[in-house]
Amino acid sequence: MPQVSLRTNSYPPKTALSLLSLAALGVVYGDIGTSPLYAFKEAFGRGGGLPLTEANVLAILSMMFWSIMVIVSLKYVTVMLRFDNGGEGGILSLLALSTRLTRKKPRLAWFASVCAIFGASLFFGDAIITPAISVLSAIEGVSVATPALQEWVIPVTLAVIAALFWIQRRGTGQVGGLFGPIMVVWFAMLAMLGLNSIAQTPVVLAAVDPRHALAFVVHAPGLAFIILGAVFLAITGGEALYADMGHFGKLPIRVAWFGLVFPALIINYFGQGALVLRDAAAIRNPFYLLAPPDLLWPMVILATLATVIASQATISGAFSVALQATRLGFLPRLPTRHTSAAERGQIYIPQLNWAMLVIVIIVVLAFKSSSAIAAAYGIAVAGTMLLDTLLVALVLWTLPMRTNPLWFAGLAVLGLIEFIFFAANATKFTEGGWFPLTCGICVFIALSTWKRAGNVLQEAEKSRRVPLDQYMALFGPEIPRVPGTAVYLSADPEAVPTTLLHNLKHNKILHDRVIILHIADADVPRLADRDRVEVNIIDPHHVYQITLKYGFMEEPDVPRGLELAARHAVRIEPMETTYFLGRTTIARAARRGLFTWRRELFRIMQRNSPAAAEYYKLAPERVIELGTRVTI
Prior knowledge:
The structure is a single chain. The chain has 632 residues and is α/β, with parallel strands linked by helices. The chain has two domains: 19-454, Up-down Bundle (Amino acid/polyamine transporter I), CATH 1.20.1740; 470-630, no CATH class. The chain is 58% helix and 9% strand. It has 26 helices and eight strands. The chain has helices spanning 14-27, 30-33, 39-44, 54-79, 91-101, 106-145, 153-166, 172-200, 211-219, 221-231, 238-243, 245-248, 250-278, 286-289, 296-310, 312-327, 350-367, 370-374, 379-398, 405-426, 434-463, 471-474, 498-507, 558-563, 596-607, 612-615, and strands at residues 337-338, 347-348, 481-489, 510-521, 533-539, 543-550, 577-586, 623-630. The strands form two sheets. The protein has a six-stranded mixed sheet. Strands 1-2 form a two-stranded antiparallel sheet. Helix 4 (54-79) runs antiparallel to helix 13 (250-278), helix 8 (172-200) packs across helix 15 (296-310) and helix 19 (379-398) packs antiparallel against helix 20 (405-426).
């Protein structure tokens, strides 16, 4: 397997590894870790309606075991974590890798872009459903134990969801630190209850043999296809661990999976199978009936906490995907707080957090029960998994070195399995499966519209590009000068800012001192002031190029950064300084056409995106914004 990571693997010290693995339990594995509550039962209940026989129990357990082994352990934990983009995971990391490798193949690059953006869009749909179904199912479990609380299910659910999104501001590391110990207890209880049941009926261990699953598929292919929708519930959440890679790193995620999560899940599923073989009536709720009567209420409380935690994986994963989408030009710049100096990927995005909260509340109020939401669960996850596999194959295909054909054969098998899972879940489209697909399509339209408009504006900028080394030839001493300092922000450090060209075109003057300012990102949490500023003198006493560097945990403060230029003999008086910012827009369509609405969508997104002046902490009265309108 070729190593395609864009950075060298580094391994944290043992103490840090232990803490990160513990935090990963509370963030990454909450979703898949709570699947024993309902996955096995669904195969024999309304989700599958399968007769309860020993052969069927062994077949379902075998299908679950090998699904988890192949899709989660092999594909995601072992293979997918190798495909990171500067430590970030998720389907947009695959897009970044494929974009780099397909620059000379525009059609292939376009195909990869469409697949990745639609996969990321589906992930957002999943990130909406998971908190709704997880929290609602938890509170419903409490109401079953105490029927008098039935009328409080929806209000309490909304309160818990609001609290869950509120604590996101503390960062995924601290949230994981809070949830991690709870999940350790949860997985330990899963294993303990499962082992006790398996010891009484060890015949269920035969389900490790894949022939039980194969025999079931051969003898009842139609029924097996329907049952796959319930079996798939055992691996939902597997895709989130890849999206959450940037929060903790690949090694802590692997240690947590193989060291605790994987064995605990398998043992508990097998324990449930052993229980129903001893007592068929236990199928009504095999998870809770594994517990002795004295442990029933503690397990209800623990399960309630665990299912609330389950939504954390997709919430933090949505933050990661949104950040990558911003960096790749599919979303406008979003205010992002980095909440850890140890891991760059531990972030909090306030706007996305509160938007998700509103939509999740709407979902709960619309569906009103976890059973209704369950019909929508799975389609988005299966689609994302399938697109992950497709993009990995594309990345391997475009690698400059030769790739072993056996890897493509393995990916083809994985893709076939995931396509079957997707088809099985698609049968629930009219029962609620339309919701995540609708969410995915809406997000896809927004992402692709912003990217397309950005490409149009970028091409327009290139047509007006003037290399910086031609500055002196273009702006000679004959141009009138006015007192003061003008600061022109420039995204391209090798070109003259278009705002400077527009100012000269319209006002016919230049300031006595011109500063071409470039903001650069550093791959460290914070920078000392002595390392923050670089000054390049273009015309002594008149024209300077200044680069301000900021670590990933810092927010740019341009006025304060420019004060540091005094160390390089460039003193700037705040009250004599004017900042020139550019804003390029797309003109309204002269005549309405088939895709005019996308132009208007971009204009709406642009109007509501954060202002650059506010982002760089510039005083509004010292800012002049020069607009450029592009006609297409």
